[in-house]
Amino acid sequence: MSQKKYRILIGKPGLDGHDRGAKCIARALRDAGFEVIYTGIRRTPEEIAAAAVQEDVDAVGLSSLSGAHLVLFPEIVENLRKQGAEDIPVIGGGIIPEEDLPTLNEQGVSKVFTPGTTMQEIINTFTEICEKGAHA
Amino acid sequence: MTSKHPDLQKWEETVLAKTIQKFPERCENFHTVGGLELPRIGLPKVLDQEYLEKLGLPGMYPFTRGVQPTMYRSRLWTMRQYAGFSTAEETNKRYRYLLDQGQTGLSVAFDLPTQIGYDSDHSMSRGEVGKVGVAIDSLADMEKLFDQIPLDKVSTSMTINSPAAVLLAMYVALAEKQGVDPQQVKGTIQNDVLKEYVARGTFIFPPRPSLRLVTNIFEWCSENTPSFNTISISGYHIREAGSTAVQEVAFTLANGCEYVRAALEAGLDIDVFGKRLSFFFNATTDIMEEVAKFRAARRMWAKIMRDHFQAQNERSWMLRFHTQTAGHTLSGKQIDNNVVRVTLQALAAVLGGTQSLHTNSKDEALTLPTEDSVRTALRTQQVIAHESGVANSIDVLGGSYLLEDLTDRIEQESWALMQKIDDFGGVIPAIEQGFIKRQIEDSAYEYQNKIDSKERIVVGENEFQSEEEMKVPLLRIDPEIEKTQVKTVQDVRQNRDNQKVESVLNQLEQAGQTDANLMPYIVEAVKEYATIGEICQVLRNVFGEHKEISS
Amino acid sequence: MHNIDQIVQGIHQEKSRSIARAISIVEDADAGADDLLDSLDTARIENTMVVGITGAPGAGKSTLTNCLVEHCRNLGKRVGVVAIDPSSPISGGAIHGDRIRMMQHAMDQDVVVRSMATRGRLGGLCASAGAAVRVMAAGGCDPVFIETVGVGQSEMDIIQSSDITALVSAPGLGDDIQALKAGLLEVADIMVVNKADCPGADLLSMELEEVAHEKGRRVFRTVAAKKEGIEDLFTYMRELFDTHRESGESARRRKLARQREIVDWSIEMLRPYIGEMCKSRGDDLSMDPKICAHEITKSLLQGHGNRE
After folding, report:
1. Which domain holds residue A65?
2. Do residues B214 and B259 make contact, with C-beta atoms less than 8 angstroms apart?
3. C101/B551 touch (CB, cutoff 8 Å), yes or no
4. Any chain B CB within 8 A of the CB of A15?
5. Number of neighbouring beta carbons within 10 Å of residue C272
6. Which residues in chain A have Cβ-Cβ distances shorter than 8 Å to C103?
7. Closest residue of B to A68, CA-based?
8. Quick check: B550 contacting C, CB < 8 Å?
9. Given a cut of 90, is residue B216 above it in pLDDT?
10. Nearest-5° Cα angle at B261, B227 to B256
11. B414-473 residues touching C, CB cutoff 8 A
12. Chain-wide mean pLDDT for chain B?
């Protein structure tokens, strides 16, 4: 039986257009064997959640560098819940101060990467979270 | 005693003499700290043909060693720190602080809704208002931004691209309100929409109509605001997106060529708009490559403007640029190291002959900078300017075997890459087919891999780490600000003459369907307090919206 | 564990989540996949038009597919799209970058999009993609577009599993029309010259017309970026599908496709057993691989290595 392939949706909610980080992570995940659905910049939370549900992804990765994460990330969690997909974990990254992590966690974001996190750490986290979900 | 080379003689008697008259050098003579006199410029004992062709003299084609004959000996580079956040009032306070501290030019950062032509109460603006810059919805916000700042006494650089026409219109309208003649107004708008599609992502309209707006601005400014720089053709963001130094040069100059072509097609005179083109580059930490890069870019642009586009006016051949130290090199760990990085990067920019410089603050990888860290960033420039001696002679590294070799090689590789773009049929096809974005992404990925594998060391991050628990005082944007701004723009909409607004917006829409220059219509609209969202919506209706290209 | 009944009900009620979950279950061959497939509404599946869209990168397939989706929506249809991207042969992962173009439909419940990777399966791609199409059809989608690059054999098979195949080219891609698309030219029902407003479009159209004429096929010109030529193209697709249904061509193709899919599923199912037998036999380097294979196959057919 071949290894289960995990599907990840990566998107940038809000107006921030800097996609270098998101794209690097997408590539790194692909190189680690994930199937990555990249949804681009300037997405609304509703769009990202809808796409995640349609693609039945194992996790959603969000990137925000403009400081809008406290508003937009929880909205995505909420939108997933509304569509009956609260089991899809949401992971965030970007320019996010340590101080905001507890709030984001409370609001349903499973894990947040702060600047300086290595690619390997990111890949390990996605792997862990997906594997946990698969056995749920 | 060796006799002076005739070219050198001529340079001294014409170009140099003229400049010294207008902009005398800061000192009669310059000396090192130890008392040795510093020549104006280090020269080889013999100025052979190769030297004259490839390096030449500063202020003369091909400008490799600098665009002015006296460079910093007459005037230091402009110390221009990018700033702006939350409200116009807060930003205004920060400006007046910086002007007091000796900063010589203002630089405006706008929030993302403003950059993308949305009002603060638009659904897409949620969570973004005032975060990465100041929110400007209408002329009313502009008035608050420059409260007590006379626009004839400052030079303002506005980092705005797709809706640059709107912000420029607001600035000029404000100047008029202050009683300042627009002919006196000085500054720059970034207005470089081509890089948005490949590096920065704040595009609104598709490429071709955007170029129309750009050329409208060129034309209008040459008549109305001749001292205003109408574009800052940017490599900074391309580099931030992960490109190499060669790609930074090649893609920036290729974009520059595209703007020149568009302007010529629109019937503009290259010698009128050519001298108002300016550039914006990145300064990363690899000093020699950066200095070589700036020199190669200058030499290439001179050749492009003189030999390819056949501009006649010497001033059109000069590549003048602003530099910002590399944001992407700032670390969130051991942030004091960033001060060192920024110093080296600023030094590279100065050694490379930049006309103006922004130095990042040490905490910028984590947050918007505090007043203290901004001051240190500014002091970094001042220490270089006044204590290091490198500003007292021109192109001080010129002649270094390594530097000249790197300069030549960067030039060669950049030409080759520009040729590839030509093979696509130009910049716009290369953008539309994802070529440029892919190139940048490939470099970004390679760079990331080198860091992950420790082939490239980042001190404090993948080597020399420490178990620090240093707490950085963060600058928080109060979420109430969004609410306040929303109320402000709604009040503006209520209190203006809405009939007039509708009328000017209609006229703008109609003009948009023709070949007319849109600037006068936009100026009329901002004077009636039409909002940026309303104006951009009209333009969206006419031009359409650009959709992201997958690469 | 999956509640198959609930999911099947959800599919027939055209619920996004159910359709999405179902496709995953089938693709991963999870428990319940068989029941799921068995319970799908066959009437719906029979009547759905499946359109395969293929062509070299840069031809504008995704833009074109997007235009077709928009057009179908304007006609009030519920549309499905299976977008297939190659998996990296080295890492096994994939990036589905074309989803970006489809994001404008993210909020439209009547556009069902699924990105699928080839997963290096020699056969399995047909199997999963075919199943995904059937799930979408059962979920009320008609038509369903399958979009693929069409380079590998498995992707050829996919394309051949469609009712109508369109081969998209564009001028200036630097391909020698004969060399690259020989196989696809055979298979395509419709040839599309996209970016028809670019230089070289006339020449390309002419070259394709020659080939098309021989086989009684047509060439269409589109400028997907400007949404031109879409209506005519889609109208012809429908007409051709109806014609094939009447003539029995459609039934013939579906039968072939069904056979292909059965073979693919079988191979996929046998593969682990073959793998285990190889392992348990050890590796006698002196024996020719083909002879090993003979022995293994004979063993399996005789019922050795029985598993349930």
Report:
1. 7-135
2. yes
3. no
4. yes
5. 12
6. 39-40, 43, 47, 51
7. B127
8. yes
9. yes
10. 65
11. 433
12. 93
| Phi and psi angles of residue C85, each rounded to the nearest 5 degrees, phi first | -125, 150
* H-run or E-run covering B114: helix B112-115
Q: Domain residues of chain C, as ranges? A: 1-39, 42-248, 261-303
Among C56, C206, A67, residue whose Cα is nearest residue B133: A67
Which tops the pLDDT comparison, C265 or C151?
C265
Question: Taking 80 as the threshold, does the pLDDT of residue C110 lie above it?
Answer: yes
* CA–CA distance, B315 with C306 (Å, rounded to integer): 85
Q: Which residue has the tokens 């975060």?
A: B131
The partner residue sitting opposite A97, judged by closest CB among B123, B367, B449, is: B367
- Contact residues on chain A for C94, CB-CB shorter than 8 A: 30, 35-36
What is the rounded average pLDDT of the residues A12-16?
Answer: 95
Residue whose token pair is 């199912």: C269
pLDDT tens digits for C220-278? 999 998 899 999 999 999 999 999 999 998 999 889 888 888 887 788 788 888 888 88
User: DSSP of B122-176, one letter per residue?
Assistant: SGGGTTTTTTSSB---SHHHHHHHTTT--TTT-EEEEE--TTHHHHHHHHHHHHH
Beta-ladder partners of A109: A90
In order of B293, B547, C235, the CA distances from B432 in angstroms are 27, 10, 29
What is the least distance, in Å, from the CA of C100 to any CA of chain B? 6
Q: Flag whether residue C2 sits within 8 Å of chain A, measured between CB atoms.
A: no
Contact B547 C104 (CB under 8 A): yes
Please tell me whether residue C127 adopts helix, strand or coil conformation: helix
Q: What percent of chain C has pLDDT over 90?
A: 41
H-helix or E-strand spanning residue A62: strand A59-64
Q: Is residue A49 part of a domain?
A: yes
Q: How far is CA B57 from CA B276, B321, B376, B412, in A?
A: 22, 18, 34, 21
Whether the predicted pLDDT of C149 surpasses 90:
no
Q: Say yes or no for a CB contact (<8 Å) between A38 and C99.
A: yes
| Per-residue confidence (pLDDT) for residue B1, from 0 to 100 | 46
A30 assigned to some structural domain: yes
Domain count, chain A: 1
Interchain contact, C98 vs B551, CB within 8 Å: no
Any CB–CB contact under 8 A between C1 and chain A? no
Predicted complex ipTM: 0.90
Would you say residue A2 lies in a domain? no
Query: Is residue A76 in a domain?
Result: yes
Q: Say if the Cβ atoms of A68 and B548 lie within 8 Å.
A: no
Identify any residues that bridge with C79 across adjacent strands, giving them in sequence order: C111
Q: What is the DSSP letter of B384?
A: H
Among residues 53-112 of chain C, which lie with CB inside 8 Å of chain A?
A: 87-88, 90-97, 99-100, 103, 106-107, 112
Measured distance CA(C142)–CA(C231) in Å, rounded? 16
Query: What is the domain class of C42-248 according to CATH?
Result: alpha beta
Look up the CATH number of the domain holding residue A117. Answer: 3.40.50.280
* Average pLDDT of the segment spanning B156-177: 96
Of the listed ranges B325-329, B426-430, C280-284, the least confidently predicted one is C280-284
